[in-house]
Amino acid sequence: MYSIGLIGCGEVAEHGHLPAILGGGDFRLAATCDLNRRRAELLASRAGGAAHYTDWRELLAREAELDAVVLALPPEISPEVAIECLGRKLAVLDEKPLATTLADGRRLQRAVEQHRGVYQVGFVLRYGQWVNEISRLTAQLGSPLQISVEVYDERLNPDDPAHLARITGFIKTSSAMTHEGSHVIDYVSLWNPSHWTSASAVAKQTSAAFSGPNIWESRINLADRSTVLVRIGWLLPELPPSTVTIVGPAGRLDFDCAAGRGHVELDGAEKSFAAPPLAPEWSSQYAAFAEAIARGHAASATVDDGLRALETTLACELSARTGSAIAPADLYAEAARSTSDCGLVNQEAPDRPVESC
Ligand SMILES: NC(=O)c1ccc[n+]([C@@H]2O[C@H](COP(=O)([O-])OP(=O)(O)OC[C@H]3O[C@@H](n4cnc5c(N)ncnc54)[C@H](O)[C@@H]3O)[C@@H](O)[C@H]2O)c1
User: Fold this and answer.
1) Alpha-helix residue ranges (DSSP H) falling in the chain
2) Which of 6, 58, 111, 300 matches a 20 to 30 Å C-alpha distance to 84?
3) pLDDT digits (tens, 9 = 90+) for 261-310
4) What pTM value is reported for the model?
5) Which residues are near ligand 1 (CB < 6 Å)?
6) 126-274, what's its fold?
7) Would you kindly state where each structural domain of the chain is located, as residue ranges?
8) How remote is the CA of residue 4 from the centroid of ligand 1, in Å?
9) Which residue among 53, 93, 95, 179 is best mutated to probe the pocket of ligand 1, counting the most ligand atoms within 8 A of its Cβ?
């Protein structure tokens, strides 16, 4: 059984990570940490009185027996913590998105390489049976594909100001595209692993009370000439159904993510299919993490998967700001300009340094 520390004791830690750690047989919760002492105490008490801290550096210094940490922190905070943990040879399960800037994402990737670390991104939706089933069916649709994913979440509830504050907090420091869209980019990469070649996006803000856009429409072109259309809607009073549609030369697939029902037309034949609806697959994620620790490296939801999602969603953000389509070289040049980080390497062409360096 691996000894694990939980850093960040907010919503996803309380309702996702903690039950998965306590309910599975692979991990023992040794310590918790949150800036908010009450949150750290609360989650520690649910684990039968684990140690609790308000300073993650103190947790790392004092808990010498740890094998692993879970980081359920805001993504502008988590890269620094993850890099320190990797340097201490701790396995890291890090909530998505792995960072909010390309510079931080690349720093993290370099740290994983340098320390040969066990690092897994919390892409908890990729383990869904529906993701596998769509992957199996998509392989029969041919290429290029037109993939369209619509996700509506975080319903606006006027009676829940704490929810609104948490979500507008995410939108202020990052975006709905990076938070929610990173999941989409991740599971779409399991259906079509082609690298992105350009992204364009339009973003809308439906209330002055929000801290930024809550509706996104992003179009991503892939190297095999496939296209991915991602629509994200947060903070809407009513949520339309979340759906997947994939059209290829050999047919078409439709899936209603909440109902778990799909329909496929393939070479003129039609059939329905069913899969458990879209939901976080916590126990599968933790089983994959335990296997990664035993193996000595992550085999799923790797740092490269996290960086691919971050690159794509940051390109969408840059496109929405500038009104132009963004290619990988544009994104890396912009990141180098804004950070003066000549260690930034274009994932598309790793041997070629970014232009401004
Ligand atoms: N995988 C998923 O499906 C999923 C779902 C929800 C959230 N998330 C991700 O998880 C992360 C956390 O989300 P959340 O909804 O729990 O947010 P939250 O705001 O409820 O929790 C974040 C917690 O981190 C604590 N914190 C902030 N800075 C800290 C620091 N320096 N040291 C210690 N604690 C610190 C805050 O006090 C807070 O309790 C985000 O990156 C979010 O995108 C993932």
Assistant:
1) 11-12, 18-23, 37-46, 56-62, 78-87, 102-115, 129-138, 161-173, 176-179, 181-191, 282-295, 303-322, 328-339
2) 300
3) 999 999 889 999 999 999 999 999 999 999 999 999 999 999 999 999 99
4) 0.93
5) 7-13, 33-36, 39, 56, 72-75, 77, 95-96, 122, 124, 166, 179, 280
6) Dihydrodipicolinate Reductase; domain 2 (3.30.360)
7) 2-124+282-301, 126-274
8) 17
9) 95
